[in-house]
Design goal:
The complex is a heterotrimer of chains A (169), B (343) and C (179). Chain A is an all-alpha fold and 169 residues long. In chain A, 76% of the residues lie in helices and 0% in strands. Chain A has a domain of 79 residues: NADH-ubiquinone/plastoquinone oxidoreductase chain 6, subunit NuoJ (Four Helix Bundle (Hemerythrin (Met), subunit A)). In chain A, α1 packs antiparallel against α2 and α2 packs antiparallel against α3. Chain A is globular, with a radius of gyration of 20 Å. Chain B has 343 residues and is mainly alpha-helical. Chain B has one domain. Chain B has 11 helices and 2 strands. A two-stranded antiparallel sheet of chain B has the order 1-2. In chain B, α1 crosses α9 and α3 packs antiparallel against α4. The longest helix of chain B is centred in the N-terminal third of the chain and has 36 residues. Classes of the chains: A mainly alpha (169), B mainly alpha (343), C alpha+beta (179). Chains in contact: A-B, B-C. The interface between B and C is medium-sized, with 15 and 15 residues.
């Protein structure tokens, strides 16, 4: 029971802040709640002995991506008054699609068994940076490189969009 | 966890926090003195001998100033802003090895608060969190000028974080470890990283100046031409927290620079000292001597160089430092591979 | 055209050389300059403890001198008030009564003599105009007051006290030497 207390605390914070993200009326508050969610998730990673993932999660998501989100939101100055009221058809379709996603996720989770790291000298230490690096560059090198190509494509796309506007102007 | 270890760590945390705050306090005094000396003045010399009590007087002034919270501000975020800035600044010190070990009253004290094996990433993580204090403060003030200041500050910090990370990668590739303890231990004697990474050091140092919002990159807070920055609406101790966090960041940056590039706690001819107790203390002193030197360099630069224009700052960050850092990284990688293959 | 200064520099828009674009040499040079100043003698004077010497001709707060027997020299002729370019001096004359010979040297004296220190420009013309060698400028600075009225100095502040005679010889002897 004692071992569960940090887990329970982190879970509580995660769920609470995630709810805050969804329910906050002000988008800036929403983003800040999301940052807290990432913090709590990093706490979970540390409990799982995956320090590298925890810190990278903080640097990349909380430190960089969310800052950019915040950046845009602060400049747009969105608030309750400027938010256009959604038609009820939109609301229903959004609820439907989200509900379907939930059903799919729940269905796939129900049958799946948790993947456990096989026992051995390095059990539970797969999250440490050395083991993670080895795994990424040997066993999972193809998906790793493919995902980096994906990022490259996204970057080129961003540059292209930026260029195009400049030519028109 | 072992109870003795827990107590040891708590003592260490409190001591290092105290030392950090003390040094940050006296950095304000040192800043004014250095500024004065570089400009042929004497600086504050009224409060106590040589003006040594000046930081207390400044703090007293800060405490007794009127506390203003703008009526149209987001009150809670407005209060949280300086707190976040201070918190993230104080947290970074945990991963820095302040020495190997100290022997006090026959008890051996490990001088690193947390030997995280990804220490350098931990520091980068908390440095990137520091943006939130500034952004939240600037936005919550509900003032367009502080919002501009916050956006200037955060875009600057994000831009320079990239070059900073890239220059660190070169060091990490050389030492093959992300742990600051390991990186420091590999530079024993005079085998400092700066001899192998001079370009990386210059890039890192420039980025450290920008990350701390120090001159010549202090656009987020230039009082004269851009009416301050993210903290225009702040007064009293909340303003004090922002300014104080900057000095803590400066101290931590100096410590990181010393650890990454200048051998950390190592000093020349340390192998000749046989007594481990004496060695521990000397290493502690050596690290702090390096830190003080870098704090001085920070101030020296501030009172020498004029501020960059904003487009110059962005040009320098994106078009000079990042390509240079990538070049540095590629060269380092090539050399490391060549050396591993026996060339 | 005649140059106003010998340090004028021709400004040009030429491309910077690689050495200049690196910035670092220029930065290091600048830091060398400031470091040199770090060790230079400081220009500051720690004021209340150390005071810079006054010029011998410094013109400060006025004094109305007494003669050797302690009698006021001023005869309220009004020449100082006429000479004053700032119109800072006013006075009311009165006739010396019997039994007041030990107080006033002349038969007419100034019952009221006021100098407005906020108007005064400390030019010293009053001193030159005075035929009786009564008014002099000293090397004292006008002290700080909290209201404007206190800057109008009456006889209580201007006439030199009997027990604390004011020495004006330094400036006067310098003037004589010049003449």
């Amino acid at each position: 029971m004692m071992d569960n207390i940090p887990f329970l605390i982190f879970s509580f914070i995660t769920i609470l802040t995630a709810l805050g993200t969804v329910t906050a009326r002000n988008p800036v508050y929403s983003v800040l709640f999301l940052v807290l969610t990432f913090f709590a998730l990093s706490g979970h990673y540390i409990l799982l002995n995956a320090q590298f993932i925890a810190v990278v999660n903080l640097i990349v998501y909380a430190g960089a991506i969310m800052v950019l989100f915040l950046f845009v939101l602060m400049l747009l100055n969105l608030n309750k008054d400027s938010e256009a009221p959604r038609p009820w058809l939109w609301q229903i379709s959004a609820a439907l699609s989200a509900g379907m996603l939930l059903v799919v996720l729940a269905g796939s989770m129900r049958e799946a068994s948790l993947y456990l790291v096989k026992g051995g000298p390095e059990a539970g230490e797969i999250g440490l940076v050395k083991n993670l690096g080895k795994a990424l560059f040997t066993e999972f090198v193809v998906p790793f490189e493919i995902s980096s190509i994906l990022f490259l494509a996204a970057m080129v796309g961003a540059v292209m969009i930026g260029k195009k506007e400049k030519q028109q102007a | 966890m072992d109870q003795a270890l827990l107590i040891e760590k708590i003592i260490l945390v409190l001591t290092m926090l105290g030392i950090t705050l003390l040094i940050a306090t006296y950095s304000t005094y040192a800043e004014r003195k250095v500024a004065a000396f570089l400009q042929d003045r004497l600086g504050p010399d009224r409060a106590g001998p040589f003006g040594l009590l000046q930081p207390l007087a400044d703090a007293g002034k800060m405490f007794f100033k009127e506390e203003l919270i703008p009526a149209a501000s987001e009150k809670w975020l407005f209060i949280m802003g300086p707190g976040i800035a201070m918190f993230t600044a104080c947290m970074t010190g945990a991963a820095i090895p302040w020495g190997t070990e100290l022997h006090i009253f026959g008890y051996t004290l490990n001088m690193q608060i947390a030997d995280i094996d990804i220490g350098i990433l931990y520091i980068i993580g908390f440095v990137s969190m520091g943006v939130y204090g500034i952004m939240i403060g600037g936005w919550a003030s509900n003032n367009k000028y502080s919002l501009y200041g916050a956006i200037r500050a955060s875009s600057q910090m994000i831009s320079y974080e990239l070059a900073m990370g890239l220059s660190i990668i070169a060091v990490v590739m050389m030492s093959g470890s992300l742990s600051l303890k390991e990186i420091a231990a590999q530079q024993s004697g005079m085998n400092w990283n700066v001899w192998y990474q001079p370009l990386g050091f210059v890039i890192f140092f420039t980025c450290a100046l920008a990350e701390c919002n120090r001159a010549p990159f202090d656009l987020p807070e230039c009082e004269t031409e851009l009416i301050g920055g993210y903290h225009v609406e702040y007064s009293s101790m909340k303003l004090g927290f922002y300014l104080f966090a900057e000095y803590i960041n400066m101290f931590i940056s100096s410590a990181v620079i010393a650890t990454l590039y200048f051998g950390g706690y190592n000093f020349p001819f340390q192998d000749m000292i046989s007594s481990p107790a004496l060695l521990g203390w000397l290493q502690f002193i050596a690290l702090f001597a390096k830190i003080f030197f870098f704090i001085f360099v920070f101030m020296w630069i501030r009172w020498t160089l004029p501020r960059f224009r904003y487009d110059q700052l962005m040009h320098l960050g994106w078009k000079s430092l990042i390509p240079l850092a990538i070049l540095n990284m590629v060269i380092t990688a090539a050399v490391v591979i060549a050396r591993n293959n026996g060339f | 055209m005649e140059r106003l200064t010998t340090r004028a520099k021709q400004v040009s828009n030429k491309e910077m050389t690689l050495m200049e674009r690196i910035y670092l040499p220029a930065i290091l040079h600048g830091m060398g300059v400031t470091l040199k100043h770090f060790f230079m003698k400081k220009a500051s004077v720690r004021y209340p403890e150390v005071q810079r010497p006054f010029s011998p001709v410094y013109r400060g707060v006025h004094v109305l001198k007494r003669d050797e027997e302690g009698r006021e020299r001023c005869t309220a002729c009004g020449l100082c008030a006429v000479a004053c370019p700032a119109e800072a001096i006013t006075m009311v004359a009165e006739e010396r009564k019997k039994g007041e010979e030990h107080l006033y040297r002349e038969e007419k004296y100034a019952a009221v003599y006021e100098i407005n220190q906020l108007r005064c420009i400390f030019c010293g013309l009053c001193e030159e105009a005075c035929p009786k060698e009564a008014i002099f400028l000293t090397d004292k600075i006008t002290p700080v007051e909290e209201d404007r009225a206190s800057f109008i100095y009456g006889k209580d502040k201007l006439v030199e006290p009997l027990d604390k005679r004011v020495d004006v010889s330094k400036r006067q002897s310098w003037r004589l030497n010049q003449a």
